[in-house]
Every structure is written in C-alpha cells, then in structure tokens.
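Hi team, as promised in this morning's meeting, here are the two structures we talked about. I've kept the exact order from the run log so nobody has to guess. The first one is mostly here for context; it's the second one we should focus on when we meet again. Sequence first, then the predicted structure tokens.
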Amino acid sequence: MNPKRDFLVGLTAIVGIFGLIGMLTIFGELSGAGRNSYPITVGMPDARGLGQGSSVRLSGIRIGKVAKAVAAEDPTKGVIVTLKIDEGVRVPRNVVVTISSDFIGDTIMSMAVPSDEPVPGYLAAGDRIDVVPLGLFDQIGQEVLGELDQRLEPIVGAAESVQTLADTYNRVGEELLVLVEPRTTTSVDSGDQVANLSTMIQRLDTAVANANEWIADPDRRGRVDTILENVAGLSDEAAGTLERWTALAESLDVRAGELAGAGEQAVARFIEATDQLSVATEEVQVIAARINEGEGTVGQLVTNPDLYQSLDDAAKRLDAALIEAQLLMQKWKAEGLPIRL
C-alpha cells in the first residue's frame, strides 16, 4: 500500500465529482434540484426524442423538465408528455412549442409566447394543452417568413397604393371617354343619351352659324342699331331720373333731420312740463295732508264743525244785513232821504 498514491487517487476522484457537478450545473441539469414543482400535461403528435429528464425552457430559461413521455391509449392520438414545472413559474396557455437538440445531442422542449397575441390565461397544476411542436427548420422558416413579412409590408403598401391610383386613373379615363364620345343633339333632345362635350360643341357651332347668318342680314343690323339707340336714350333718361331721385332723397334726409330736431325739442319740453306737474302734484298732496291734519284756517274749517257753523251763521247774518241795506237804499232812492231839523 502506497499512501501517497491512494491520496492522489482520492483527490482525483473528488475533483472529478466536483467537475461533474459543475458541468451538470452549467448545462442546467441541476438548476431545478431541491425546488418544488407542479405537473402539466402536453399532448403532441410525436415525442421527437423527448424523454425523462429532457429540459423544458420558456423564452430560453430552464423552467422544468420532462417527467415522462408515454404513448396515448389511442395510438392515433400521438403521445402524452408530463412536465414538471418549477413552482412560481407561470406558463401561458397559448405557448408555441418547439423541439430541438443542443450541441451535445440532448433533446430540449422550448416554449415561446407569441408577441402579437394577448395572453388568454396561465396553466395550473394538472392542466393539459395540445400542441403541434415545431422543428428547428420550421422555427427558422417561421422566423424568416415573419422577417420577410415585416420587410415586404412597405412594398405591399406601396403596391396597394399603386393599384388604387391605377383604379382611379381607369375611372377617370372611362369618364373622359364618356365625355368625348360622339353623340348627336337629336339623341340628347329625345332623352336617349346625356349631353357631353361633343353635343355641346355641335350646339355651339349651330349657334355661331345662326349668329353669322343673322348678322349678315342688313335689315336686321339696322333694327339692332335702332334698338341700341333706344337703349342709349333710355339709359340717359334713367340716369336723369336717378339724379332726381337722389336729390329728392337728400331733401327728405334734410327734412327728416329737421323733424327729428323739432321732435327732440318737443319731447324735452314735454318732459320738463311733466316734471313741473309732478312737483305741483307733490305740493298738492302735502297741502291736502296738512288740511287733513287740521293745520291752518282751511284745516280748522275741515276738521272743526263748530267753527264752520259759526262762520256759516255769521255769513247768513251778513247776507241778511246786505239785503236790508239794499232795500233801504232803494227806499231812499224812491222817497228821498228824510232829514229832521
């Protein structure tokens, strides 16, 4: 027995064990060790090399492993793969599954979430989803197609714009053809066709020909000259009438201004008289109030019946004395004034 050799052998074995553990950790084989997990089931047409212990990744991150992969009871239904997903990781229900292999030949189930779709929910323990996994080339093809769609989208938009422009030009061309299509005025007058540029030109030519024929007649030209002279005379008369109407309107404006001034003065005088009447009314009301309260002679007469009766008696006696004086004067005038010596 050589102790030194045994020590080296043991040290080499320990280093190998730690190296193996490091390699397993680097390749993700021990990332789920000691963690709790929950099961979900995935139905697929075929396993494509998946087996117990195969790595399961979501967006490139290891989230669990394959617990088992068995054929379905109905062989036409494919296989059923049971996954153990690390606790705390949520797997969307609309994940896209891809089966691929790493550089050392291990089969990996990769899951990706579509970026253009809303997440309908997440898988719980015991749930099942059915997928058709994509191969590596299928995934590459989809990525290439997606990239091509993005690149071709501006070109497709430009092509649609060109097509729209072409359709517009086609419609414009058809309308231009209808506009310049040869037609007769007879068909337009009868209602069989709609007037267009051709019929308009025909009518214009006819009108010009009629005008030339009409102008070429001397008698007609003479009548036109007479009509023009009459029109000129009527224009002069209309101008004179307009001037007279203008002068009349100005005179009416002046009269209206004078009437407006006189009206304003009358209104001012009326307002002044109204103010004076209002003052007089207030004074009468004050005097009436004083009379009602018994102030002054008139007030005493109104409020003191005895004074009024005394004055009435005195007035009656004075009236009787005046009557007697008148009778005495008449007697003296008739008989003479008696004088006693």
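And here is the second protein, the one for discussion:
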Amino acid sequence: MQTHLAVNDRLLDEARRLGRHKSKRDAVAAALKEYIANRRHLAGVTVWNLSAHEGAYHPRPSRAYKR
C-alpha cells in the first residue's frame, strides 16, 4: 500500500545516515518498527507498575545487615 507523507528531509537524511539505511523507505520502516516496539515496552511497564506489587517495590531496599 503506497502512502504519501510530508517528512522533513533533514530528519530523514540524518535517520538514513545514522541507521545506515539504503533508502528513505528503509529508514521510515525502521523508525516505525522502533516506535511500535518502544510503545509496546512502555505499555508493558505500565501494566507491571499497576499490578499487585504496587507500593511494595522500592528501588533501594534498606541495607540493614543481619549479624
């Protein structure tokens, strides 16, 4: 399916160069895949944060050593 988009040429050229993509189409496809993966990851993190562990997790637990 062909779609026409107005994309900033500077951004597209930089994405092609940084990603070492052969064409603009490859750069756009890679960007969309990365965007979708990132959004799915964020959705998973949000679901985990709202699970039964809510409030029980602390990134730095107390360091009380038992002797």
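Starting points for discussion:
The helical segments are 9-19, 24-49.
Residues 4 and 37 are 23 Å apart (CA to CA).
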